[in-house]
């Protein structure tokens, strides 16, 4: 089993909340857990555990779970409670359909900003961790988390203040967590090559090429999605 398919070790036996009773504490804790391996798609969120770990009352926990459900990060399963969302094949395909034009726009805006004089320094760190992953010095959990950083960096360079609010970054991260364990090394390298083409177009300030390779990246992701085995999706697991 991949490290992305099982929760990471629980290092939170001590109560981490030193004060406050806000749902925001719970929301932040769960979202942070998606990036450090504490939570994985399909994992049940136990209210009693959250209450004890965060030293918080039941009301804020339930409010937080409602908020996360509204963001599409959790799902409420009848008689089984709240779980970290795991996409069905159709849900994943629908998400990528939405992402295709947005990713193209994101890359285009970043390249236009670079052509107009924006700093490219933030992309240097992105290239470094890509190189580290290729050398095998970055694990799967770290790599999947860092992929989000690429999108965030491109949006920051592009400078459109509204795009971060409508770009479904958290949902994309969940889909990556769910699908990445099923990609072989060759396919993962193809993903990296696509990222490098986007970065190269942005660094050169070529907005037309950046828009094109951004769109091609999501189109390739759709093909990878279609090739995933049925066990990658909860609708299959539920019927087995």
TrEMBL record:
Chain positions covered by the region annotation Disordered: 1-20
Keyword terms, alphabetized: DNA-binding, Transcription, Transcription regulation
Domain of life assignment: Bacteria
Organism listed in the record: Kineobactrum sediminis
PANTHER family according to UniProt: TRANSCRIPTIONAL REGULATOR, GNTR FAMILY, UXU OPERON TRANSCRIPTIONAL REGULATOR
UniProt-recorded name of the protein: HTH gntR-type domain-containing protein
Molecular-function annotations in GO: DNA binding; DNA-binding transcription factor activity
Pfam family, one: GntR
All residue ranges annotated as the HTH gntR-type domain in the record: 20-87
């Amino acid at each position: 089993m991949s490290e992305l398919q099982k929760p990471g070790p629980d290092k939170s036996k001590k109560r981490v909340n030193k004060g406050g009773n806000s749902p925001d504490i719970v929301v932040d804790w769960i979202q942070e857990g998606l990036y450090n391996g504490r939570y994985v798609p399909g994992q049940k969120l136990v209210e009693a555990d959250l209450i004890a770990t965060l030293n918080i009352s039941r009301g804020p926990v339930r409010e937080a779970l409602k908020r996360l459900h509204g963001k599409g990060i959790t799902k409420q399963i009848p008689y089984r409670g709240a779980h970290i969302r795991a996409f069905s094949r159709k849900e994943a395909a629908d998400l990528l359909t939405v992402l295709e034009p947005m990713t193209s726009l994101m890359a285009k805006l970043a390249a236009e900003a670079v052509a107009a004089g924006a700093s490219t320094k933030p992309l240097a760190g992105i290239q470094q961790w890509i190189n580290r992953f290729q050398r095998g010095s970055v694990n799967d959990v770290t790599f999947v988390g860092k992929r989000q950083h690429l999108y965030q960096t491109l949006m920051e360079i592009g400078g459109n203040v509204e795009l971060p609010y409508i770009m479904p970054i958290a949902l994309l991260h969940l889909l990556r967590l769910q699908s990445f364990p099923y990609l072989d090394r060759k396919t993962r390298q193809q993903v990296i090559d696509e990222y490098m083409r986007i970065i190269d177009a942005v660094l050169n300030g070529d907005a037309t090429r950046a828009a094109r390779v951004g769109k091609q990246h999501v189109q390739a992701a759709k093909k990878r999605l279609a090739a995933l085995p049925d066990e990658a999706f909860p609708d299959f697991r539920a019927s087995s």
